[in-house]
Specification:
403 residues; alpha+beta; BirA Bifunctional Protein, domain 2; five-stranded antiparallel sheet; 13 helices
Length: 403
């Protein structure tokens, strides 16, 4: 069984998608009665979706600080396997129990017998404190079901943690496959990974030195466990001493990726399909959108030290613009300018960009895009920063005196 997990902030849209499809059937959960989409008119289906979304809002009202309270899970069976409606309902209950339990105590995943007993108890005692629906789909050859869960506990108001959820999901699914007699699917860390050659194995046994191939595979597996964005993954790899080369098409679309460590470079597909550019997304859950291309190129172009230098002054640049109450701030021969989520610092006469940063909404941090600081320009920036801070302090003192 394969599981795919997503989070968002709309119960209506998520449940509407799950139940709105032809052949959809509610087979479990506690936010809606059992129902089949094919037996309802469009108006009746819309009414059910609206009422169910309102019910989900009971848990949402317990903690409005949770930005993405909706957990949308898709569970897919191999073509040869099948489950009855009742089995889907039971399996969905047990899956949620295993995920919530392991979010609190990850070590329980390594003790199948204890995990099984804990799931039994959790389904009876605690699962009713969470709102969820299990919807089976029959629109594809392989049977699959969707679970729409509110991450917020009705009683405590606390949200289920999503830390390493993709890893935890696979461990829970392996247990459930055994319980329900389903065909075992390989874990992501077992599939799409090229094995060592015989000579590599013999060399490691003789020297105790792990091959660069295995080192890179292990690093990539560890760094992708929380499904980072592509720019975040590239930054993490650099911090681990891994140099990344990414090729682009004429239209600017990434197409091929390779990794180098200790002077040894290996193409992604030579490590295994999961480590190619597409494999990182499909098998390891790395998030990529074309809008990230500028960030990706910036990460590849700048060293970690260069990024750190520019990102360290980003809050000051944003603060000066905020105080000026303008999107452009000119100071002698230099200009600060903000366009949407990007801030640039450049020479006013030549328009040459010295530094540029972008605000990443998902991770709530600044990311460096350009760094053309020379030692002289860096010293000049520090002087400008000091003068601006001094001027702001004087102005604040005058304002205080007026009051």
């Amino acid at each position: 069984m394969i599981g795919k997990l997503m989070q968002n902030d709309s119960f209506a849209a998520t449940f509407g998608y799950c139940f709105g499809k032809a052949g959809a059937k509610i087979v479990g959960g506690n936010v809606a009665l059992l129902a089949e989409r094919s037996e309802m008119t469009p108006a009746q289906a819309r009414e059910l979706i609206g009422e169910t979304a309102q019910i989900y809002n009971l848990s949402r009202s317990q903690n409005y600080k949770v930005e993405r309270p909706v957990c949308h899970i898709a569970l897919s069976l191999p073509y040869e396997d099948n489950l009855s409606d009742e089995q889907w309902s039971d399996l969905g209950d047990r899956y949620l129990a295993g995920m919530i339990l392991s979010s609190r105590e990850p070590a329980i995943l390594d003790e199948p017998l204890r995990l099984k007993a804990a799931i039994d108890q959790f389904v009876e005692d605690e699962l009713p404190q969470y709102q969820y629906a299990i919807v089976q789909h029959t629109d594809q050859k392989h049977r699959h079901a969707h679970i729409v869960l509110s991450r917020i506990n009705l009683e405590s108001g606390k949200a289920v943690q999503t830390w390493r959820e993709r890893y935890r999901s696979q461990k829970v699914l392996r247990l459930l496959e055994s319980e329900y007699g389903l065909r075992r699917q390989p874990n992501s860390w077992e599939a799409g990974r090229k094995e060592q050659s015989k000579n590599q194995v013999l060399k490691q046994q003789a020297t105790g030195i792990v091959s660069t191939q295995v080192q890179l595979q292990q690093i990539l597996d560890n760094l992708t466990s929380d499904c980072p964005s592509m720019p975040e993954l590239l930054e993490r790899l650099q911090k681990q001493g891994v140099t990344v080369r990414l090729d682009f098409t004429r239209t600017g679309k990434p197409k091929g990726i390779s990794y180098a460590k200790d002077g040894v470079a290996i193409a992604g597909n030579k490590l295994g399909n999961r480590y190619s550019f597409n494999g990182l997304q499909r098998q390891l859950g790395v998030v990529y959108t074309p809008e990230q291309n500028e960030q990706i190129q910036a990460v590849l172009r700048l060293t970690p030290e260069q990024r750190k230098q520019v990102e360290a002054i980003a809050p000051a640049m944003a603060r000066f613009l905020k105080v000026s109450k303008n999107s452009t701030f000119v100071f002698k021969n230099y200009t600060l300018n903000q366009k949407k989520n990007e801030i640039s610092f450049f020479e006013s006469r030549t328009q040459k960009v010295i530094a540029k940063v972008a605000w990443l909404k998902d991770t709530k941090r600044w990311q460096a895009i350009e760094n053309n600081f020379t030692p002289e320009l860096w010293e000049r920036w520090k002087q400008i920063e000091a003068q601006l801070l001094q001027a702001q302090a004087v102005n604040q003192g005058k304002d205080g005196g007026r009051r």
